[in-house]
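Record pair follows.
FIRST:
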Amino acid sequence: MTAIVPIDDPADPRIEPYVQVRERDLAGRGGGLIAEGEVVVRVLAGPGSRARLRSLLIARPRLDRLSDLIGRLPADAPIYVATPSLMDRVVGFHIHRGVLAHAERPPEADAAALLGALPARAIALVALGISNHDNMGGLFRNAAAFGAAALVLDARCCDPLYRKAIRVSVGAALTVPFARLLRAEDPLQTLDAAGFEALALTPSGGEPLADLRPPERAALLFGAEGPGLPAGVALRARKVSIPMAPGWDSLNVAAASAVALFALTSHGAGPDRLTPL
């Protein structure tokens, strides 16, 4: 049975992973990650999560609300309970959600192996140079919502398992498979070897998404806001665009991914069936 452990001392060594969360998140946690908020923690503890829960730190007033979740947790994942003020002292800021989890990061996947193992009909998202954690979280959330099978990130992308990216993804970064390309790895060669056609999102000159007949295996390529896709990649991929009003030529990358995924799935790409809301 999961142990519930009261914490009265902010220096208690058992809660060391939660100390000064902001300052330590980007520096790494020795193979661990921090997830924040009830919704995300429920995803982390659910059957689709690729990360293994190590422990929870919960503000005492939240304990009853999470009683159903606590009953399903593994016995080796203790629940540390503290007052809200003590929890704030440990974390280093006001943690108004009152729920944090420490988990073991899933092992790094090989991009070629991940793509090769995907279904015969699949959509993959490819992120090149995405350094903003909000955008990264948005890409994962949209991938989960539209049934994309995986994400492939280049070496310049930010960490999708950073606390803020996980939170923005509403936990999808913990469930959607992803792999990171090696610095010298050519994304288009890797996609082609796995049978994926690369579709480069471009603000102008591309084939309108509404007219696109998607391939069985489609890879949507997204670049950083501002510079966009690397020129060498954009020139070699099939260009597609999202028609917009005159005088406007771009969307936020997360918004663009939602529009593109909707267009592809509406034309029969990806999973066989999406559930209507």
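SECOND:
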Amino acid sequence: MIAWKRLVLTSFVLAAWVAAAGGTPAAEDKTELKKGDKVPSFQATDDKGKTWKSGEHVGKKVIVVYFFPADFTGGCTKQACSYRDDMGKLTSAGIEVVGVSGDSAKTHALFKKHHKLNYTLLADEKGEIAKLFGVPFIKKSRTAKGFDENDKEIMVERGITIQRWTFVIGKDGTIVYKNPAVKADQDSKRILEVVKKQGK
């Protein structure tokens, strides 16, 4: 009975998010990584225009992969800046943070510069990484107010909007934590608590 209620609640939350985003989840989102699963190799273009490969990072540190809807939007900016502000503690705990959204590498670079972010952002413009992790996303072009290199207000566009989920990959390459109901401004602190508790 409890499991059934949880299923109904999860379906309701997803439906509300889809309605707010203005589209339908990508039909091919069938696989969903869960705690204990081995993370397949993945790569993407980072905010510097270079290729970021998971194989060069997994196993060396605990990796936080946090998916977020869009650069320069309210909740996402709070989440990004909270990771920035807690980076000293995260680094001391042996954690590497990677943010992933459907924005382009160029938009990521502008977002990172404007908010002085001190970690990597990956461009998942086709939702390939999101699909790998099983994170729902909307295939619909959207725009947001952003800032260029001179802090002049501009409009930035993305082709997909990924739901806000956070994963932690342990040094053994498996998922040790997954949160599909992230509170944007509390995410970084939650990660610190989780990693400290698990002793990873």
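COMMENT: Helices lie at 2-21, 74-85, 87-92, 105-115, 128-133, 187-198.
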